[in-house]
Write a structure and sequence with these properties.
seven-stranded mixed β-sheet, alpha/beta, single chain, 2 domains, 15 strands, Rossmann fold, binds pyridoxal-5'-phosphate
């Protein structure tokens, strides 16, 4: 019985899989906030290279991966798939548990899968630099790595709370040659405005996105890049699920349940979409569970409507599950999951009942994380522990009912820069912030006037 399923370099997928081709209800278009009409691609040209704008609106099922991008992927791809025998034993479950490990990438997460593609397209379009935001620092690290491969400058606005919690993440970005500012920063008009209103702001992804966009639009030599949410980002991540599909076939077990943590939807989509195709095109009945933090519950307690992707209201309006663009999530340790909205593709699929969502408070996630560490020897990112907590719930249900299911989850990143978070958990110092219905309806009320018609 195999414990580790590997693929050869030749088996790195040659195409990204675009789920739009197989969706029963196509995603609604992004709207211009002024006219409430679908936006035209030229509006995005100051921010993104043409190829990515085409991918953003494409309905083609397969999109070829450029050779240069595939060659770089080969440094860490195909990533390994493990059978979690230690965890199965610990839980005494008849379930088979597998995980795809994306922590082997240079940045330590799934994010370089899209960062490398985005930097490649920006490079061939002739810009000199890319501005971006980062939550926990994973995306900033991935983009910093990708930019230096292509000789691009990289400027990162890092959410203040993570900047303070994870100093080594910032230094890692610096080693790749990036400039990093704590956000809200004094570097942009929007950052200055936020600081004037609240000098102690812990920041949010929404604020940092506003700052990075402002930077990119004010410099014709600069693009902007987003590490999640957008269709082209989810598209690039499907390399994960396509590899996992081959690996599960080799293992001789197709999953009954696929689980992944959920920030904006990219690692979830990455592992889920190639398997979801089997439900849509081949009548299979695999379950897909997106796991969000209880303190930032857009999928389970938010509302499906048009909203801005950022806090300042600079992006097009996106049809998505959201808590409102003013929502500032509590400073939990899973910084990558602190986003008010969700990708358009995953939002539509959830609305159509084709995927499921659950939420987990952070305390049980860290407990699950420690069980996993002791059983499997890999330290998961706090984001990834959300998937693990749900996998354990599912595996224990299998134990109770005596059913032999196969569970696959995305171990989307390692947690070697998150020792501070594990330290506070082990010292019993973690809090579990909750969100009231009033807070959610208050921040959603800011989106009421954004609805079309
Ligand atoms: C960024 C990040 C996430 C959340 O983003 P998604 O786009 O939802 O994947 C989750 N886990 C890790 C390790 C991350 O770096």
């Amino acid at each position: 019985m195999e414990n580790k399923i590997l693929l050869s370099e030749q088996e790195i997928p040659r195409f990204f899989y675009n789920i739009v081709a197989d969706m029963p209800n196509k995603p609604l278009p992004p709207l211009h906030p002024g006219t409430r009409q679908p936006i035209t691609p030229d509006l995005l040209e100051p921010l993104f290279p043409k190829e990515l704008i085409q991918q953003e609106v494409s309905a083609e099922r397969y999109i070829e991966i450029p050779r240069q991008v595939r060659d770089i992927y080969a440094k860490w791809r195909p990533s390994p798939l493990f059978r979690a025998r230690g965890l199965e034993k610990l839980l005494d479950t008849p379930a088979r548990i597998y995980y795809k490990y994306e922590g082997v990438s240079p940045a330590g997460s799934h994010k370089p899968n899209t960062a490398v593609a985005q930097a490649f397209y920006s490079k061939i379009s002739g810009v000199k630099r890319i501005a971006t935001e980062t939550g926990a620092g994973q995306w900033g690290t991935a983009l910093a790595y990708a930019c230096q491969l292509f000789g691009l400058e990289c400027e990162v606005f890092m959410v203040r709370v993570s900047y303070d919690q994870k100093p080594y993440r910032k230094i890692m970005m610096n080693t790749f040659g990036a400039t990093v500012h704590a956000s809200p920063s004094g570097q942009t008009a929007y950052g200055k405005k936020v600081l004037a209103e609240n000098p102690d702001s812990s920041g949010s992804l929404g604020i940092a996105i506003s700052e990075a966009i402002e930077r990119a639009v004010s410099d014709p030599q600069s693009h902007y890049a987003l590490g999640s949410v957008l269709n082209h980002v989810l598209l690039h991540q499907t390399i994960i699920g396509q590899e996992a599909l081959l690996q599960m076939e080799k293992a001789g077990h197709m999953p009954d349940v696929v689980v992944a943590p959920f920030g904006g939807g990219s690692n979830f989509a990455g592992i889920a979409f190639p398997f979801l195709r089997l439900n849509l095109a081949d009548d299979q009945q695999i379950r897909f569970i997106a796991v969000e933090p209880a303190s930032c519950p857009k999928l389970t307690r938010g509302s499906f409507r048009y909203d801005f992707g950022d806090t300042a209201g600079m992006t097009p309006l996106l049809p998505m599950y959201t808590l409102g663009h003013d929502f500032i999530p509590s400073p939990i340790h899973a910084g990558g999951l602190r986003y008010h909205g969700a990708g358009v593709l995953v939002s539509q699929l959830l609305k159509d009942g084709l995927i499921e969502a659950v939420s987990q408070p952070q305390e049980p996630c860290f407990k699950a994380g420690l069980d996993f560490i002791r059983a499997e020897g890999i330290i998961p990112a706090p984001e990834a522990t959300h998937a693990i907590a749900t996998v354990i719930d599912e595996a224990l249900k299998c134990r109770e009912s005596g059913t032999e299911k196969t569970i696959l989850f995305n171990l989307c990143g390692h947690g070697y820069f998150d020792m501070g978070a594990y330290a506070s958990y082990m010292a019993g110092e973690l809090t579990d912030p909750s969100v009231s219905e009033q807070e959610i309806s208050a921040s959603l009320s800011g989106t009421d006037q954004l609805q079309p018609g």
